[in-house]
Amino acid sequence: MPPSTPRTAARRKSTVTAPAAKQRILKRGHGIVDEVYELIRGDIMALRIKPDTRLSIDSLVRQLGVSQTPIREALSRLEATGLVTKQHFVGYCTAPQLNRRQLDELYEMRLLLEPYAARCAAQQMSDEQLQQVIALAEHMEPGASRTSYDRFADQDSEFHDLIASGSGNHLVREALARLHTHLHIFRLRFHSEVTKEACNEHDKLIAALSRRQAAEAESAMRAHIDKSYSRLKAFARE
Amino acid sequence: MPPSTPRTAARRKSTVTAPAAKQRILKRGHGIVDEVYELIRGDIMALRIKPDTRLSIDSLVRQLGVSQTPIREALSRLEATGLVTKQHFVGYCTAPQLNRRQLDELYEMRLLLEPYAARCAAQQMSDEQLQQVIALAEHMEPGASRTSYDRFADQDSEFHDLIASGSGNHLVREALARLHTHLHIFRLRFHSEVTKEACNEHDKLIAALSRRQAAEAESAMRAHIDKSYSRLKAFARE
DNA sequence: ACCGCCAGGATCCTATAGGATATAGGAAAC
DNA sequence: GTTTCCTATATCCTATAGGATCCTGGCGGT
């Protein structure tokens, strides 16, 4: 029976038996590169790796217990998304914190895309997708009030991604996902209680979506982003 | 005697006449990866490699005379921009031709971003940038009428990129560059005489920019994209 | 005639070694 | 005391070898 190979648990005995460091185990199933990519991306998104920090390939080799090639490929992919930067013969470095100007540009672009996406979603979104959005929003409100801001942030990203997906335009969705990735890192540094206000705004948006009111959904999204911008821009330095 | 090896082994054929204007030192010292990246990207953009074609790493190794590692990294970067796709244990493949739906989505997003960019550019663009746009447009009109559509396509991309750059929003510019990359490949398959009409529309846009008329520039850009869409959508299959 | 099975070849993925380069720290010269 | 130069180390970049996987073509069974 060829399928479901035993996965070759014992491998790589010769290496240096990683020092007491965590040595997180990464499962092999669909490529080590993807695994490494998601791992580093997760570390950056959760601020386990702070912005503007150097990422040494060799140390990643020692930490993860894999060789340079997949790490290099994963970092190259991260560079293309803008999460890390590369200098020739110097190395990789996590992207620096968003400054005021970049935050302005980010919200400028959000305001161009997201209200329109909400309008389209109100018109074209399937009922199933709508139910998914509603379920997510209900799940956001009560529980994770203070325990972990991370959860709220993830769910907020998913909320906006669902609406972007409902717009039917895959390119817009991808562009917004890119923006939210960067925004997430910025927002994570200020655990402020944006959650409650944001949830109220989400509810208004959902009401408009449920009634299939395109114009109303568009303006609700615009108001939501405007307020989110007001809440955050105080924290942007410079 | 220190090493100082000439380094240049079996290189590619003569480069494609780089613009002799800037003679910066970043000639070839910026790594083989970038070289390979630009080479493959150029081959795809010029349709020397057709869409939906497999890209074998080994054949690239033999063809370019470099080893797998830099090729793999270049392909990984191309994948992140959407020009090629990857399947685990299968290989890389150039992205397929845009279908009708994708073309619609692309123009939908262009219409969201570019008119706004033109509006901002009319307000914020520096005089130097404006002169650059005008110079490029003048250079497009007379010369390359029939000789090579490639040149026009490149210059058209640069034209729009200059305006996007003039908007002051770097994120919008990047997103548009991404879109234009894909559009370029599509458009290149139909050498139709879009050039003359496009140039006329460009002139109207430039007139609005020169007079710093924001609303006029926005509507001119919108009209330009609308017409471009009309010219192309007939060719989209399905 | 059709379908499942299996070997061969090609390709991809990972690991390791060696050459090349930037950055840090100290010593000498002004 | 400051500046410049030089050496040493750590890191990156490229090249090559070996193990793992997928696709193609042929064979035998039904």
Portion of residues in beta strands of chain A equals under 5%
- Find the count of extended strands of chain A (DSSP E, 2+ residues): 3
Major β-sheet annotation of chain A: 3 strands, antiparallel
Low-confidence stretches of chain A: 1-29, 142-147
Biggest interface, chains and residues, is: A-B, 26 and 27 residues
* Helix content bin of chain A: 55-70%
Amino- and carboxy-terminal Cα gap of chain A: 63 Å
Number of helices of chain A: 9
* Side-by-side strand order of the widest sheet of chain A: 1-3-2
Q: Name the structural class of chain A.
A: mainly alpha
Mean pLDDT of chain A: 81
Order of helices and strands of chain A: HEHHEEHHHHHH
Structure, explained:
With 238 residues, chain A is mainly alpha-helical. In chain A, 63% of the residues lie in helices and 4% in strands. Chain A has 9 helices and 3 strands, in the order αβααββαααααα. Chain A has helices at residues 32-45, 57-64, 68-81, 100-124, 127-140, 149-166, 170-188, 194-210, 214-233, and strands at residues 54-55, 84-87, 91-94. In chain A, strands 1-3-2 form a 3-stranded antiparallel beta sheet. In chain A, strand 2 (84-87) and strand 3 form a beta hairpin. The longest helix of chain A has 25 residues, at 100-124. The radius of gyration of chain A is 21 Å and the shape is globular. The model of chain A is unreliable at 1-29 and 142-147 (pLDDT under 50). Chain A binds chain B through residues 30-31, 69, 72-73, 76-77, 79-81, 88, 102, 105-106, 108-109, 112-113, 116, 168-172, 175, 179, and chain B through 29-31, 69, 72-73, 76-77, 79-81, 88, 102, 105-106, 108-109, 112-113, 116, 168-172, 175, 179. The structure holds a DNA duplex (30 and 30 nucleotides).
